[in-house]
Design goal:
Low-confidence stretches: 1-21
Strand order of the largest sheet: 9-8-7-6-30-31-32-33
CATH class of the domain at 42-356: Mainly Beta
Largest sheet: 8 strands, mixed
CATH topology of the domain at 42-356: Methylamine Dehydrogenase, Chain H
Number of helices: 1
Helix content: under 10%
């Protein structure tokens, strides 16, 4: 039996008054769980160790929760898998001197935990939070005694786990200007840490004293323009007595002689990452992946390099394996794991290589973007996933396809557009029933932009607002002519600095042709905000200029960090949200003519993800304002809290309301009181 909720049952009237007729005429069901929309295999890193004397690969699949996998390589089988409760992924692993595998958990709660797997133990130990309140453990490096060093975000601390005592030591924040420690290496009793994300550097830490010093970078022609914006020292690796440092912004790798305390003269460009590379078993060579040449070998004595093997994709770590079949494999081969779980091996001596299919199971992927498409279906993308989904509300069938992590979705009558991170890339997909074509890459915004968090269409154009790259402030407005077919073949125009040092998270085109926009004070990760209040602006599309900008002064939103949710109402006014306030803008005078503080207890809401304002065919306004699923009467601004907490929602053509709970799609349906 379906239970229908009204104001007399469990719904809270947010205004504290009596509902008017429009709200009172409607009922909403209790939430129904429609299950996960997306499953993915998403792997960030792998290491190689041993199980009962046989080689094994270790990696973690992102999910709710993340799943740690143990794969036997000799007979290629999944030996075991373990859920990492409290973690949704792992960016790094390290094999200790005793064979234990440490796992750098990214916390699904407030703190990331460190985990340990002992081969043959049949379990994974939760070693707790190395630094409370730091959600990410980005990097790990094993010490010489079975313990491990690690680096964190948010806060940029380095820590040590002592395997003998089971205790942590926190070395504190390493780089006073950065809150990321993105990479860690250990060599002869000394720890090396790579910071980021604005202008990361390499740091030397003496564990006994805790003293740290910065290893100054040489200025080279290959990255001279970015020497003050290196983003992060994304990965560190040791080979022999040399430290290799990969920098994300310019895709360069430098080598540092640890005996002579001196950088090599050589600069290696076009490095693919995310792992800089790996030392040969005898510590005489170093291998990294070049975008143009695949695997490249560096001789540590002569410092000369040569391409040795083709490799496509991102290098996520691995290790060297000697198989029992010495006739087929006389030398140790490099084994690595792809992001989708497939295993590759490379014999650099013979030039032979091979691939094996993934043995890992996909895990439910958190839903990250959700919108109704032109065909009445829901389109969705996942967080840290490689696929999107189309959900048919009538049949509840799900169709999946590759698209990457979309931050926003918009559509015309025939085309769905996906705003994909990283690199602010825009994909286009023909919409409609039947088998869907895969989204195609349409263009990239560039201009140091990373996350297209809001998109809208109108007047034959696609409008995009962005969040900048790591360590930067200031999003852009991008506009593309879509042409008569709405397929997006026109030029792309990019307008930076619409609002100084703020990101654009709200856009709506008014029937007058003007574009209304709104901002967030936040920029990319790794940089502090400079503005105190978010702004509204009006953009003249035809003349390509801003004609008005202001911060509304409304009770309860005096210092709102984000204004978003911009929507064109049936009254031809522009509607928006900030903190717990819903407001209405007159499109001619640019004055706020009505507002209501729906949730006065919410005083600083939002960073990047916009609030959603969706208009039902019943004339009501549905929203996730302040992260609470709410129904608003547009005449009186009275509101109804449906008792659900979510920051992502959509509405179908039947006024069924869909919202997200992690990886699961939830639905609340509505009907009139006089319906059976």
């Amino acid at each position: 039996m379906r239970i229908w909720l009204t104001a007399a049952t469990s719904i809270i009237l947010a205004t504290g008054g009596v509902m008017n007729a429009n709200l009172a005429d409607r009922q909403w069901s209790e939430p129904k769980d429609l299950g996960p929309l997306l499953e993915n295999i998403s792997i960030q890193h792998c290491v190689i160790g041993e199980e009962d004397g046989e080689p094994a690969a270790y990696f973690t699949v992102a999910g709710e929760p993340a799943v740690f996998n143990v794969v036997g390589l000799e007979d290629y089988r999944l030996i075991d898998s373990f859920s990492l409760e409290g973690a949704d992924r792992a960016w790094s692993h390290a094999v200790a001197s005793d064979g234990s595998v440490y796992i750098a958990g990214v916390g699904s709660g407030a703190s990331g935990h460190l985990y340990r797997y002992r081969p043959g133990a049949g379990e994974v130990e939760d070693l707790g939070a190395p630094v409370r309140g730091h959600k990410f453990i980005w990097a790990l490096a094993a010490d010489e005694r079975g313990g491990v060093f690690g680096g964190t975000w948010e806060g940029g601390h380095v820590f040590h786990f002592d395997a003998d005592t089971g205790e942590y030591r926190d070395f504190g924040r390493i780089d006073p200007e950065e809150d990321y420690i993105r990479s860690i290496a250990f060599h002869n009793g000394t720890v090396y840490a790579g910071s980021g994300a604005r202008n990361g550097r390499v740091w030397r830490i003496e564990p006994k004293s805790g003293e740290r010093s910065r290893i100054e970078l040489p200025v080279r022609e290959e990255y001279a323009d970015e020497i003050d914006n290196m983003r992060s020292a994304y990965h560190l690796a040791v080979a022999g007595d040399h430290l290799f440092a990969f920098f994300a912004a310019s895709r360069v790798m430098l080598a540092y002689d640890l005996r002579d305390d001196k950088w090599w003269d050589e600069t290696f460009t076009g490095v693919r990452g995310p792992v800089s590379g790996i030392s040969s078993p005898d510590q005489t060579r170093f291998y990294f992946v070049s975008r143009s040449d695949g695997f490249v070998e560096i001789d540590l004595e002569t410092r000369k390099s040569r391409a040795v093997e083709r490799f496509d994709g991102a290098f996520r770590g691995g290790g060297w394996v000697r198989f029992r079949d010495e006739e087929s494999f006389p030398d140790k081969v490099l084994v690595t794991v792809h992001g989708s779980g497939g295993v590759d091996w490379y014999d650099f001596e013979s030039g032979e290589s091979g691939s094996l299919p993934s043995l890992a199971q996909g895990t439910p992927t958190p839903i990250h973007a959700l919108e109704m498409g032109p065909d009445g279906a829901l389109y969705a993308s996942g967080y840290m996933g490689s696929s999107g989904a189309r959900f048919d509300p009538a049949t509840r069938e799900i169709e999946t396809f590759g698209v990457g992590q979309a931050e926003s979705i918009a559509s015309t009558d025939k085309t769905v557009y996906w705003g994909v991170y990283p690199g602010a890339r825009i994909y286009a997909q023909s919409a409609g029933k039947g088998e869907l074509p895969s989204p195609r890459r349409a263009f990239e915004i560039g201009h140091h932009q990373d996350r297209p968090y809001v998109m809208t269409t109108g007047g034959g154009k696609l409008f995009i607002g962005t969040i900048p790259d790591y360590g930067r402030l200031g999003g852009v407005l991008a506009v593309r002519d879509l042409g008569e077919e709405g397929s997006g073949t026109g030029d792309v125009r990019v307008y930076p600095d619409i609002v100084d040092k703020q990101s654009i998270v709200g856009l709506v085109r008014h029937t007058s042709g003007l574009l209304f926009g709104s901002t967030s004070v936040s920029g990319g990760l790794g940089i502090e905000t400079e503005a105190e209040k978010a702004r509204l602006f009006v953009w003249d599309v035809d003349n390509e200029k801003k004609i008005h900008e202001w911060s509304p002064e409304l009770p309860g939103a005096e210092k709102a960090p984000m204004i978003s949710g911009l929507s064109l109402g049936p009254d031809d006014n522009v509607w928006g949200a900030m903190n717990g306030v819903v407001f209405v803008i007159d499109p001619e005078s640019f004055q706020i003519v009505r507002y209501r503080n729906v949730y006065p207890d919410v005083t600083r809401y939002g960073r990047w993800r916009p609030v959603h304002l969706r208009w039902g065919s019943d004339g009501l306004l549905y929203s996730d304002i302040a992260g609470r699923i709410t129904v608003i009467d547009p005449e009186t601004l009275e509101s109804l809290d449906l008792g659900v907490r979510s920051g992502l929602m959509a509405l179908d053509r039947e006024d069924n309301l869909y919202y997200v709970r992690g990886s699961r799609l939830m639905m609340i349906s509505a009907k009139n009181n006089n319906e059976e």
